[in-house]
Specification:
This protein has 135 residues and is mostly helical. Helix content is 53%, strand content 7%. The strands form two sheets. A two-stranded antiparallel ribbon has the order 1-4. The longest helix is centred in the first third of the chain and has 20 residues, at 2-21. It is elongated.
């Protein structure tokens, strides 16, 4: 009987170990989603593309427009914007296929990547922001 209890105990901890290894990492998920949906224009390093596409690395726009960022990701941006003192007029397409969780993960990745250190988003916060901008 003690041997079977030990085996059960061992099996439980091995299962727990492997399940914990499968837990998603939101930062890595945000990075993967960024590279798939954003890096083509904003570049892998977040530096943007010259005078056409604004940088995300060190961008004052991120903090100044925190409330609008989820809507910009989902629905795009047609307006002229000012980033770090430079004007950008290129339209940005939205990605409506992104879920609320995907948007949260992308924003949290961008807010912590490339030396950025902005307050993280909570899923509930992103959902409230998206509800205000639904088109």
């Amino acid at each position: 009987m003690p041997t079977s209890q030990f085996r059960l105990f061992l099996l439980f901890f091995i299962s727990l170990f492997f399940l914990s290894r499968c837990e998603p990492n939101p930062y890595r998920e945000g990075e993967r989603l960024y590279k798939t949906n954003c890096a083509n224009c904003h570049m892998d390093n977040g530096e943007g593309l010259g005078a056409l596409i604004p940088p995300l690395a060190g961008a004052d726009f991120l903090e100044k427009n925190r409330e609008a960022l989820p809507c910009i990701l989902r629905y795009g941006l047609q307006d002229t914007i000012l980033v770090n003192g430079k004007t950008y007029a290129e339209a940005m397409p939205g990605v409506q296929a992104l879920s609320d969780i995907h948007i949260t993960n992308i924003l949290n990745y961008v807010n912590q990547a490339w030396g950025n250190s902005h307050k993280p988003y909570r899923l509930e916060e992103v959902q409230q922001m998206l509800a205000r901008c639904r088109k």
